[in-house]
Design brief:
45% of the residues lie in helices and 20% in strands. With 341 residues, it is of the alpha+beta class. Helix 1 runs antiparallel to helix 5, helix 4 runs antiparallel to helix 5 and helix 5 runs parallel beside helix 10. The chain is globular, with a radius of gyration of 21 Å.
């Protein structure tokens, strides 16, 4: 493949998707893409919330959504830099450099974070740890999935089951409005195809996509008592937001089960809870929380002991089952199995 005379520089979301598609389809080489001179100022998360509680104040519930979004961005960054979604794998200085800064506008109705600094830090820290193609794919996917418009649009199309809203739209102006904003286009299908190809090229793209999706869910599910919330320019009325969260709950099933498993890691990065990576005999690993640390001290000690000894432990988990995935998993109890006599 002949090298391009002028390197490709990314300066918009459209550039990112086009370059990602051309790279995966082998139309260009990774060496043709100059990430160091690219601008990621376009990659940002932009929210506007209107409601009585959002005038000169910011509800705690809404802040929890921002914290969960931030945590998932850090986990995605750790996947790229350390091939692990554990935040503790990142050095302290890296975590500080990768923190998202949310700027609140006057009246606290507008909240924005530009991802340019953290993404540039990732590019700088990668060096020659990955192949050029891996770096370009992962960095562009991260920027577009967290800081672009298209993945939010696709997320809402699927979450709201947009094609099923058309009957409601005839009677309700709020539904007509959201359908007009989310109307499907050929571009949407092309971008979804590019994401699927990228995920086949590198499994971490799929993991980042799942983390980004959970981050978007957190932003919307914690937007309580709003009249209107606008994310990446897409406006959702209170009625549509309630419907979105209802559909999300309906697609999931609350489950509780006990399983013999190994504890791969315990992430104490968050101040008020620990994240535990659990390896089961079958099925994908589970990332679960343990909260109320003092109340669950015995359980936490059992988990730490199992992690250090690499021995199996009985774990009781609860969460929302969606297909094969367990969402919002929590550790209820953990104990060492009795030896058979």
């Amino acid at each position: 493949m002949a090298k391009l005379d002028v390197p490709i520089r990314i300066s918009s979301e459209a550039d990112a998707w086009l370059t990602l598609r051309r790279l995966i389809d082998d139309e260009i080489d990774a060496d043709d893409v100059d990430l160091n001179s690219s601008s990621f100022a376009w990659a940002s998360i932009d929210l506007h919330a209107k409601g009585e509680k959002y005038h000169s104040s910011l509800p705690t519930a809404f802040m929890r959504g921002l914290v969960e979004f931030q945590d998932n961005f850090l986990r995605s960054s750790a996947l790229i830099l350390k091939d692990s979604s554990h935040i503790t794998k990142l050095p302290n200085d890296a975590r500080a450099d990768l923190d998202l800064v949310f700027v609140v506008s006057e009246g606290t109705t507008g909240i924005k974070s530009i991802l340019e600094g953290p993404i540039g830090e990732i590019v700088k820290r990668l060096g020659d740890k990955l192949t050029g193609k891996q770096i370009v794919i992962l960095v562009l996917a991260l920027a577009a999935m967290y800081g672009g418009f298209q993945t939010y649009k696709l997320h809402l199309q699927h979450a709201l089951e947009i094609e099923k809203l058309e009957d409601d739209a005839e009677e309700d102006q709020q539904y007509r409005s959201i359908i007009e904003q989310l109307i499907e286009s050929d571009q949407d299908a092309a971008i979804e195809d590019t994401l699927n190809k990228a995920a086949k090229n590198d499994k971490r793209v799929h993991q980042i996509s799942e983390l980004a999706s959970a981050g978007r869910d957190a932003l919307l599910s914690h937007a309580a008592d709003v009249d209107v919330v606008t994310v990446q320019g897409i406006s959702l009325s209170k009625a549509v937001l309630v419907d979105l969260n209802r559909r999300s709950r309906r697609r999931s099933e609350e489950v509780t089960f006990t399983e013999l498993a190994k504890i791969e890691a315990i992430d104490a990065a968050e101040a008020h809870h620990f994240r535990v990576k659990i390896r089961r005999k079958s099925g994908p690993p589970i990332n679960a929380y343990i909260r109320d640390i003092e109340e669950n001290r015995r359980t936490l000690n059992a988990l730490w002991k199992a992690e250090s000894s690499r021995k199996q432990i009985m774990v009781e988990l609860t969460g929302r089952q969606i297909g094969r995935d367990l969402r919002d998993a929590k550790v209820r109890r953990a104990w060492t199995p009795r030896k058979k006599s």
